[in-house]
Design a protein that fits this description.
single chain, 756 residues, mainly alpha, three-stranded antiparallel beta sheet, elongated
């Protein structure tokens, strides 16, 4: 099919006038500039499209990098054509001298960005990429048969050689490993978007010219036949767009890459699963943490790229898809759909299924290509599980969020029952969030929750009944089906109630997250080796969010790597002044340290620290080496008392929440807190009022919740002082459970409310 009406208005006369002015233009560049400006619905009062600063930016930074194949040496031709068009508009009296000079200056400003956009590997489309290769090989890109012959010869080249020629050659030394696959996925997605955009622009111009004809301007594009349905109309404009795009790449190229050579340009009409997964992981991380430095803890990973590839080759799903590629009719419908989505199968123009590019990559690819292929399969599998009965998502991105949160557990086993309870909005006491799963249970088959007594122990929720267990079973069954489905790709493994991410699963999700984030956020999922190389401040800033068992192991690894010299900077980072709840979060990491391993010399030096001196004193006293009282500043003693009192308050609040009747208010103050405070105040210089002042000075944020409780102290003077401390403390509650699951619950609750 051809474009029935020329897209351009007299390009020959434009080229002739440029020749007369002594500044001849390259015809192909001029035709592309004119045509794309027509698609921007530029005014054509001179017979040619009239550029503006806005249109120049769209042309140079968006449209030309989407549709035109050109060598770097040819790029100035496009800038020259745009400047010549501005000159023509000025000569025709449609642009005054000042506006003309401003427009030309803007074009030259945009030229640098145009060069970057046209040469960036991340801005390519399949037609542009193959058009560049054809031109580099000296092929006549206006000859359809020559283009087809070149593609046929290219398809016969070995897989690795083709990828190298395309610029997607992968190396095991790359970080991330799937960088080449990511670039290929971007190319596929950009190609899909470019095709849709061009068809939409053609239709928009046709409709505008039909509904609002401009005097003196002829039609730019062909009008669609009147008897087409909506779907037929979309197809018609899509075919017109393909023919038009070939003017700027190579004759017949679009149809060839959509048809007999589709395996050379994977991606098709649907979003690429790898790209979808990467964007979902990055989006989840940013939604959970914003711009805050909050990396996931390092997890066990395969020891090498080759080990990772071997683990992948041992999984069930790719072998199943490979068999589907060899025998599409012998595969069930679900497998065929997964094979199509992940590129193991492609559907030809005649509707016949045949082996796709992923089948060849699986057979011949190295570790880096297999990693990219695994991300594609994981994205396709997640998309399928999100829609299937029994595993359908309750809100968009739910399954990716579940995997992201499992990444936060660093490969440690989690209880299915506990994860299901948290996902179903049950309140699980913080100290039980990292408790081990229930022992035993079958490795495969249907999952049954433990009995109510065992469930009570796992969740830390008292007096659970058979009815409670029955109510939780659907959420647990759904979670198990999801995780067992992902096990087909080796991402998860489960034995009874124990569920974890495998090293392969952690590696793939780490790849997705690192690919999707840029700048400092790319450290969102560091390796153990990377964390060992961090300074103490970076380690503490990250570990404050991690589950305590994971933080304990990682900090222990860091100290082992840094030796005796690591203790001083670690304690300095733990005591660093910070706003809001951060000081308490940092001090909570003291409980993850092996107290017996802290050198005595370090503890004695730490006694004078205004924040951690009280902790060091307590440790030395436990070793039978109590220091002299003046050695520890009062501020450090206040910090230690504050943490002890806050622990009492949190325990009392939790006990009330777990045992009190619904909506029963908390006692004010808690008897346990009142007793602990009075005991501390009796030994504090100046008594309770002075102690409250010292606590607020030590950590106003954490003191706020204590002061609110103690504002009901029976001693009026102490109660008044507590109210003053409360009013001057930082806003907000000191309630902090130290877990990402708080954010998970909030996010799930928000999504469920929106779903309504």
């Amino acid at each position: 099919m051809t474009i029935a009406t020329p897209l351009l208005a007299d390009p020959d006369s434009f080229l002739a006038r440029a020749e007369e002015r002594g500044a001849p233009l390259e015809a192909r560049a001029a035709e592309a500039v004119l045509g794309l400006l027509v698609l921007c619905e530029a005014r054509r009062r001179t017979g040619l499209p009239e550029p503006t600063e806005e249109l120049a930016a769209e042309l140079l930074h968006t449209l030309l990098p989407l549709y035109v194949s050109a060598t770097e040496s040819e790029l100035p031709d496009y800038v020259a054509a745009l400047v010549a068009l501005a000159d023509h508009t000025r000569e025709a009296g449609r642009l005054n001298a000042k506006r003309h000079a401003k427009l030309v200056a803007r074009v030259h400003e945009l030229a640098e960005g145009f060069l970057q956009a046209m040469t960036s590997p991340r801005r390519l489309t399949w037609p542009r990429l193959y058009g560049n290769l054809l031109r580099a090989d000296g092929v006549d890109t206006t000859d359809r048969q020559a283009v087809r012959d070149w593609l046929d010869a290219f398809a016969q080249r070995p897989h690795a050689e083709r990828h190298a020629a395309l610029g997607f050659a992968a190396s095991c030394a790359q970080e991330p490993l799937a960088e080449a696959a990511w670039a290929e996925a971007l190319c596929a997605e950009r190609s899909r978007q470019a095709r849709l955009l061009l068809a939409g622009r053609l239709e928009a111009v046709a409709v505008a010219e039909r509904e609002r004809p401009r005097p003196g301007e002829g039609p730019s594009v062909a009008a669609a036949p009147a008897d087409l349905s909506d779907d037929e109309l979309d197809d018609w404009y899509g075919e017109q767009a393909a023919v038009l795009a070939d003017r700027w790449t190579a004759a017949g190229l679009d149809a060839l890459l959509q048809g007999p050579f589709a395996h050379l340009a994977p991606g098709g009409e649907a979003p690429v699963p790898l790209l979808t997964l990467v964007e979902a992981m990055a989006g989840t991380h940013l939604e959970m943490n914003g711009g805050e430095f909050a990396p996931l803890p390092p997890a066990p990973l395969p020891v090498s790229a080759e080990d990772q590839a071997a683990r992948l080759r041992a999984t069930e799903l790719p072998r199943l898809l490979e068999r589907a590629a060899a025998d599409p009719e012998g595969a069930d419908e679900r497998t065929r759909e997964l094979a199509l989505a992940s590129g193991f199968l492609v559907r030809g123009q005649d509707g016949v299924l045949g082996p796709g590019p992923s089948a060849e990559a699986w057979s011949d690819g190295g570790p880096a290509e297999l990693t990219g292929l695994a991300l594609t399969m994981l994205g396709a599998l997640l998309s399928r599980l999100a829609e299937e009965e029994g595993t359908a998502e309750e809100y968009d991105g739910e399954h990716v969020l579940t995997l992201y949160l499992l990444c936060g557990e660093a490969g440690t086993a989690q209880s299915v029952a506990r994860l299901a309870a948290l996902g179903d909005m049950w309140f699980v006491p913080p100290e039980h969030e990292s408790a081990p799963p229930a022992p035993g249970g079958p490795e495969t088959g249907d999952y049954e929750l433990p009995d109510p007594q065992a469930l009570t122990e796992i969740l830390g929720i008292p007096t659970l009944t058979a009815s409670d267990r029955e109510g939780l079973q659907p959420a647990a069954t759904r979670l198990v089906r999801l995780m067992d489905g992902l096990a087909a790709l080796g991402v998860t493994e489960r034995t009874g109630d124990a569920l974890r991410l495998t090293p392969l699963g952690s590696a793939l999700l780490r790849e997705a997250l690192v690919l999707g984030l840029e700048g400092p956020a790319a450290d969102a999922f560091p390796t153990r080796e990377q964390v060992r190389g961090w300074d103490a401040g970076r380690l503490v800033a990250a570990a404050r969010y991690w589950p305590k068992p994971v933080a304990r192991q990682t900090i222990g690894d860091w100290l082992a790597a840094h030796g005796a010299e690591g203790w001083a900077p670690l304690f300095e980072a733990l005591a660093a002044p910070c706003p809001g709840p951060d000081p308490a979060r940092r001090r909570s990491l003291l409980t993850t340290l092996d107290a017996a391993a802290v050198p005595e010399e370090t503890l004695h030096r730490l006694l004078a620290d205004p924040v951690l001196g009280g902790w060091a004193e307590h440790l030395l006293t436990a070793r039978g080496q109590a220091p002299a009282a003046p050695a520890v500043p009062l501020s450090a003693r206040a910090v230690r008392l504050l943490d002890e009192l806050e622990a009492v308050r949190l325990a009392a609040s939790l006990d009330h929440r777990m045992t009190a009747a619904t909506d029963e208010p908390e006692p004010e103050p808690f008897p346990e807190l009142l007793a602990a405070f009075d005991k501390a105040a009796a030994a504090w210089p100046g008594g309770g009022q002075a102690l409250l002042t010292a606590l607020a000075a030590a950590d106003p944020y954490t003191t706020a919740a204590l002061a609110q409780q103690l504002s009901h102290h029976p001693d009026r003077a102490t109660a008044e002082q507590a109210r003053r401390a409360w009013r001057t403390s930082l806003a907000g509650s000191a309630e902090y459970v130290g877990s990402r699951r708080t954010k998970q619950s909030n996010r799930r609750a928000d999504r469920k409310r929106k779903r309504g």
